[in-house]
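Researcher: Next sequence.
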Amino acid sequence: MPIRIPDQLPASDVLRKENIFVMPESRASTQEIRPLKILILNLMPKKIETETQFLRLLSNSPLQLDIELLRIDDRPSKNTPEEHLNAFYRQFDKIKDRNFDGLIITGAPLGLVQFEDVAYWDHLQTIMTWAKHHVTSTLYVCWAAQAGLKLLYNLPKRTRKEKLSGVYHHDIHQPFHPILRGFDDTFLAPHSRYADFDADYLGEHTDLDILATSDVAGVYLASTKDKRNVFVTGHPEYDANTLHNEYVRDLGEGMEPMIPVNYYPNDNPDNLPRASWRSHGHLLFSNWLNYCVYQQTPFDLEHFSEDKFTKDD
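Model: Next structure:
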Protein backbone atom coordinates (compact mmCIF):
# COMPACT_ATOMS: atom_id res chain seq x y z
CA MET A 1 0.00 0.00 0.00
CA PRO A 2 1.17 3.56 -0.61
CA ILE A 3 2.25 6.46 1.49
CA ARG A 4 0.14 9.55 0.97
CA ILE A 5 2.06 12.82 0.72
CA PRO A 6 1.48 16.22 -0.93
CA ASP A 7 1.60 16.05 -4.72
CA GLN A 8 4.52 18.47 -5.07
CA LEU A 9 6.73 17.30 -2.19
CA PRO A 10 10.28 16.83 -3.60
CA ALA A 11 10.48 13.34 -2.11
CA SER A 12 7.70 12.20 -4.46
CA ASP A 13 9.88 12.14 -7.56
CA VAL A 14 12.79 10.51 -5.75
CA LEU A 15 10.64 7.72 -4.33
CA ARG A 16 8.82 7.07 -7.59
CA LYS A 17 12.15 6.59 -9.35
CA GLU A 18 12.90 3.93 -6.72
CA ASN A 19 9.64 2.20 -7.66
CA ILE A 20 8.03 3.08 -4.33
CA PHE A 21 4.24 3.43 -4.43
CA VAL A 22 3.50 7.08 -3.63
CA MET A 23 -0.14 8.14 -3.83
CA PRO A 24 -0.89 11.83 -4.44
CA GLU A 25 -3.49 13.49 -2.24
CA SER A 26 -5.75 13.97 -5.25
CA ARG A 27 -6.08 10.20 -5.74
CA ALA A 28 -6.09 9.18 -2.07
CA SER A 29 -9.07 11.42 -1.38
CA THR A 30 -11.23 9.20 -3.62
CA GLN A 31 -10.50 5.98 -1.68
CA GLU A 32 -12.80 4.79 1.07
CA ILE A 33 -9.98 3.66 3.36
CA ARG A 34 -9.06 4.86 6.82
CA PRO A 35 -5.30 5.58 6.42
CA LEU A 36 -3.03 5.86 9.42
CA LYS A 37 -2.28 9.45 10.34
CA ILE A 38 1.49 9.80 10.82
CA LEU A 39 3.08 13.06 11.95
CA ILE A 40 6.81 13.71 11.46
CA LEU A 41 8.45 16.40 13.59
CA ASN A 42 11.56 17.11 11.54
CA LEU A 43 14.35 18.64 13.62
CA MET A 44 17.16 18.01 11.12
CA PRO A 45 18.67 20.99 9.28
CA LYS A 46 18.43 19.48 5.78
CA LYS A 47 14.74 18.80 5.95
CA ILE A 48 14.16 17.73 2.35
CA GLU A 49 16.87 15.06 2.62
CA THR A 50 15.49 13.84 5.95
CA GLU A 51 11.90 13.75 4.67
CA THR A 52 12.94 11.47 1.84
CA GLN A 53 14.88 9.15 4.13
CA PHE A 54 12.01 8.62 6.55
CA LEU A 55 9.36 8.38 3.85
CA ARG A 56 11.40 5.66 2.17
CA LEU A 57 11.29 3.55 5.36
CA LEU A 58 7.62 4.24 6.01
CA SER A 59 6.72 3.06 2.52
CA ASN A 60 7.62 -0.58 3.23
CA SER A 61 4.26 -1.48 4.73
CA PRO A 62 0.89 -2.87 3.52
CA LEU A 63 -0.80 0.03 5.33
CA GLN A 64 -1.86 3.28 3.73
CA LEU A 65 -0.26 6.21 5.52
CA ASP A 66 -1.32 9.83 5.54
CA ILE A 67 1.87 11.81 6.26
CA GLU A 68 2.00 15.32 7.71
CA LEU A 69 5.17 17.29 8.39
CA LEU A 70 5.60 19.44 11.49
CA ARG A 71 8.16 22.16 12.14
CA ILE A 72 9.31 23.03 15.62
CA ASP A 73 9.03 26.82 15.26
CA ASP A 74 8.96 29.60 12.67
CA ARG A 75 12.63 30.57 12.79
CA PRO A 76 14.26 30.88 9.33
CA SER A 77 16.13 27.78 8.16
CA LYS A 78 19.68 27.95 6.79
CA ASN A 79 19.39 24.66 4.93
CA THR A 80 15.80 24.48 3.69
CA PRO A 81 14.02 27.05 1.48
CA GLU A 82 11.36 28.98 3.33
CA GLU A 83 8.90 28.38 0.51
CA HIS A 84 9.29 24.62 1.07
CA LEU A 85 8.58 24.98 4.78
CA ASN A 86 5.58 27.20 4.13
CA ALA A 87 4.17 24.82 1.53
CA PHE A 88 4.60 21.47 3.27
CA TYR A 89 5.05 22.03 7.01
CA ARG A 90 2.50 22.80 9.68
CA GLN A 91 2.90 24.74 12.91
CA PHE A 92 1.99 22.96 16.13
CA ASP A 93 -0.88 25.35 16.85
CA LYS A 94 -2.59 24.11 13.68
CA ILE A 95 -2.61 20.45 14.69
CA LYS A 96 -2.63 20.46 18.50
CA ASP A 97 -6.38 19.77 18.72
CA ARG A 98 -6.12 16.67 16.51
CA ASN A 99 -5.14 13.07 17.22
CA PHE A 100 -2.60 10.97 15.32
CA ASP A 101 -1.86 7.29 15.05
CA GLY A 102 1.91 7.78 15.08
CA LEU A 103 4.51 10.49 15.65
CA ILE A 104 8.16 10.39 14.59
CA ILE A 105 10.57 12.88 16.16
CA THR A 106 13.85 12.99 14.25
CA GLY A 107 17.34 13.55 15.50
CA ALA A 108 19.00 16.95 15.66
CA PRO A 109 22.66 18.12 15.59
CA LEU A 110 22.57 19.13 19.25
CA GLY A 111 24.73 16.47 20.84
CA LEU A 112 26.98 18.92 22.71
CA VAL A 113 24.24 21.40 23.65
CA GLN A 114 22.58 21.22 27.06
CA PHE A 115 18.82 20.78 26.94
CA GLU A 116 18.11 24.12 28.59
CA ASP A 117 20.26 25.85 25.96
CA VAL A 118 18.29 24.45 23.02
CA ALA A 119 16.27 27.34 21.58
CA TYR A 120 13.09 25.27 21.21
CA TRP A 121 13.45 23.05 24.27
CA ASP A 122 10.31 24.31 26.04
CA HIS A 123 8.28 23.95 22.87
CA LEU A 124 9.61 20.45 22.27
CA GLN A 125 8.58 19.45 25.79
CA THR A 126 5.12 20.81 25.08
CA ILE A 127 4.83 18.65 21.95
CA MET A 128 6.12 15.54 23.71
CA THR A 129 3.65 16.05 26.55
CA TRP A 130 0.84 16.63 24.04
CA ALA A 131 1.73 13.33 22.36
CA LYS A 132 0.85 11.41 25.54
CA HIS A 133 -2.81 12.29 25.00
CA HIS A 134 -3.01 12.63 21.22
CA VAL A 135 -0.71 9.98 19.70
CA THR A 136 -0.92 6.19 19.85
CA SER A 137 2.84 5.58 19.52
CA THR A 138 5.80 7.95 19.32
CA LEU A 139 9.12 7.00 17.74
CA TYR A 140 12.09 8.98 19.11
CA VAL A 141 15.20 8.91 16.91
CA CYS A 142 18.79 9.63 18.05
CA TRP A 143 18.88 13.03 19.82
CA ALA A 144 15.11 12.91 20.21
CA ALA A 145 15.55 9.63 22.12
CA GLN A 146 17.78 11.44 24.61
CA ALA A 147 15.23 14.24 24.88
CA GLY A 148 12.40 11.75 25.36
CA LEU A 149 14.25 10.00 28.17
CA LYS A 150 14.69 13.34 29.87
CA LEU A 151 11.00 14.13 29.63
CA LEU A 152 9.59 10.69 30.50
CA TYR A 153 12.18 9.55 33.06
CA ASN A 154 13.96 12.77 34.04
CA LEU A 155 17.28 11.26 33.00
CA PRO A 156 20.11 13.81 32.78
CA LYS A 157 21.94 14.36 29.54
CA ARG A 158 24.81 11.88 29.23
CA THR A 159 27.52 12.72 26.70
CA ARG A 160 30.37 10.61 25.34
CA LYS A 161 33.90 11.99 25.28
CA GLU A 162 34.19 11.28 21.56
CA LYS A 163 31.58 11.19 18.85
CA LEU A 164 30.20 7.78 17.99
CA SER A 165 30.25 7.49 14.20
CA GLY A 166 30.02 4.37 12.10
CA VAL A 167 28.11 1.15 11.54
CA TYR A 168 27.96 -1.19 14.53
CA HIS A 169 26.89 -4.75 15.25
CA HIS A 170 23.92 -5.15 17.59
CA ASP A 171 22.42 -8.11 19.45
CA ILE A 172 18.71 -8.55 20.11
CA HIS A 173 17.54 -9.38 23.64
CA GLN A 174 13.85 -10.23 23.38
CA PRO A 175 13.53 -12.18 20.13
CA PHE A 176 9.75 -12.61 20.48
CA HIS A 177 9.03 -8.93 21.07
CA PRO A 178 6.78 -7.61 18.26
CA ILE A 179 9.17 -4.79 17.34
CA LEU A 180 11.89 -7.38 16.69
CA ARG A 181 9.71 -9.69 14.58
CA GLY A 182 11.87 -11.03 11.76
CA PHE A 183 15.15 -9.56 13.06
CA ASP A 184 18.34 -11.59 12.84
CA ASP A 185 20.08 -12.37 16.13
CA THR A 186 22.68 -9.78 15.18
CA PHE A 187 22.31 -6.86 12.77
CA LEU A 188 24.06 -3.69 11.65
CA ALA A 189 22.90 -0.12 12.16
CA PRO A 190 24.57 3.30 11.77
CA HIS A 191 25.15 5.77 14.59
CA SER A 192 26.23 9.40 14.56
CA ARG A 193 25.98 10.97 18.01
CA TYR A 194 27.62 12.18 21.18
CA ALA A 195 24.75 10.96 23.37
CA ASP A 196 25.49 8.04 25.67
CA PHE A 197 22.88 5.28 26.06
CA ASP A 198 24.47 2.83 28.48
CA ALA A 199 22.43 -0.37 28.79
CA ASP A 200 23.07 -0.87 32.50
CA TYR A 201 22.18 2.73 33.26
CA LEU A 202 18.88 2.59 31.36
CA GLY A 203 18.07 -0.78 32.90
CA GLU A 204 18.61 0.62 36.39
CA HIS A 205 16.78 3.93 35.95
CA THR A 206 13.86 3.06 33.66
CA ASP A 207 11.28 0.31 33.16
CA LEU A 208 12.00 0.15 29.42
CA ASP A 209 12.22 -3.09 27.50
CA ILE A 210 15.82 -3.07 26.23
CA LEU A 211 15.47 -4.72 22.82
CA ALA A 212 18.83 -4.35 21.08
CA THR A 213 22.30 -3.29 22.20
CA SER A 214 25.86 -2.99 20.98
CA ASP A 215 28.99 -3.62 23.03
CA VAL A 216 30.34 -0.34 21.66
CA ALA A 217 27.29 1.81 20.95
CA GLY A 218 25.15 0.81 23.92
CA VAL A 219 21.38 0.63 23.65
CA TYR A 220 20.07 0.88 20.09
CA LEU A 221 16.40 0.03 20.55
CA ALA A 222 14.12 0.25 23.59
CA SER A 223 10.39 0.53 24.23
CA THR A 224 7.94 1.21 27.01
CA LYS A 225 5.87 -1.81 28.03
CA ASP A 226 2.79 -0.52 26.22
CA LYS A 227 4.83 0.27 23.05
CA ARG A 228 3.56 3.84 23.07
CA ASN A 229 7.12 5.18 23.25
CA VAL A 230 9.87 3.61 21.16
CA PHE A 231 13.47 4.82 21.28
CA VAL A 232 15.95 4.34 18.43
CA THR A 233 19.37 5.77 19.27
CA GLY A 234 20.91 5.34 15.81
CA HIS A 235 19.95 6.35 12.30
CA PRO A 236 18.30 3.50 10.39
CA GLU A 237 17.01 6.09 7.92
CA TYR A 238 20.49 7.15 6.75
CA ASP A 239 21.40 6.84 3.08
CA ALA A 240 24.58 5.02 2.10
CA ASN A 241 26.52 8.29 1.82
CA THR A 242 25.14 10.21 4.83
CA LEU A 243 27.96 9.31 7.22
CA HIS A 244 30.44 10.13 4.45
CA ASN A 245 28.91 13.57 3.94
CA GLU A 246 29.10 14.24 7.69
CA TYR A 247 32.73 13.11 7.77
CA VAL A 248 33.66 15.39 4.84
CA ARG A 249 31.74 18.28 6.42
CA ASP A 250 33.63 17.92 9.69
CA LEU A 251 36.95 17.78 7.84
CA GLY A 252 36.03 20.94 5.98
CA GLU A 253 35.28 22.72 9.24
CA GLY A 254 38.80 22.06 10.50
CA MET A 255 37.81 19.30 12.88
CA GLU A 256 39.70 16.04 13.18
CA PRO A 257 36.91 13.48 13.00
CA MET A 258 37.63 9.81 13.32
CA ILE A 259 36.91 7.71 10.26
CA PRO A 260 33.42 6.20 10.66
CA VAL A 261 33.81 2.66 12.02
CA ASN A 262 33.01 -0.35 9.81
CA TYR A 263 31.74 1.94 7.06
CA TYR A 264 34.24 2.36 4.25
CA PRO A 265 35.61 -0.79 2.58
CA ASN A 266 39.00 -1.46 4.17
CA ASP A 267 38.35 1.61 6.38
CA ASN A 268 39.58 3.78 3.51
CA PRO A 269 37.57 7.00 2.98
CA ASP A 270 38.61 6.94 -0.69
CA ASN A 271 36.44 3.86 -1.15
CA LEU A 272 32.75 4.19 -1.90
CA PRO A 273 30.68 3.31 1.20
CA ARG A 274 27.93 0.73 0.90
CA ALA A 275 24.80 0.52 3.04
CA SER A 276 24.65 -2.61 5.18
CA TRP A 277 21.66 -1.70 7.34
CA ARG A 278 18.76 -1.14 4.92
CA SER A 279 16.89 -4.41 5.50
CA HIS A 280 16.67 -4.05 9.27
CA GLY A 281 15.87 -0.36 8.95
CA HIS A 282 12.85 -1.16 6.79
CA LEU A 283 11.85 -4.02 9.07
CA LEU A 284 12.03 -1.83 12.16
CA PHE A 285 9.69 0.78 10.70
CA SER A 286 7.33 -1.85 9.31
CA ASN A 287 7.10 -3.51 12.74
CA TRP A 288 6.58 -0.18 14.50
CA LEU A 289 3.74 0.72 12.13
CA ASN A 290 2.08 -2.67 12.47
CA TYR A 291 2.51 -3.65 16.12
CA CYS A 292 2.88 -0.28 17.88
CA VAL A 293 0.52 1.80 15.76
CA TYR A 294 -1.97 -0.15 13.62
CA GLN A 295 -2.64 -2.93 16.14
CA GLN A 296 -3.03 -0.45 19.01
CA THR A 297 -4.71 2.64 17.61
CA PRO A 298 -8.48 3.25 17.89
CA PHE A 299 -10.35 3.10 14.60
CA ASP A 300 -11.96 6.46 15.27
CA LEU A 301 -9.24 8.93 16.22
CA GLU A 302 -11.85 11.42 17.40
CA HIS A 303 -12.39 9.17 20.42
CA PHE A 304 -8.71 8.75 21.20
CA SER A 305 -8.70 10.58 24.55
CA GLU A 306 -11.49 8.45 26.03
CA ASP A 307 -10.34 5.25 24.43
CA LYS A 308 -8.10 2.48 25.81
CA PHE A 309 -5.17 4.77 26.58
CA THR A 310 -6.99 7.09 28.98
CA LYS A 311 -6.31 4.82 31.93
CA ASP A 312 -2.55 4.93 31.24
CA ASP A 313 -2.17 8.71 31.46
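Model: The two ends are 33 Å apart (CA to CA). The mean pLDDT is 90.
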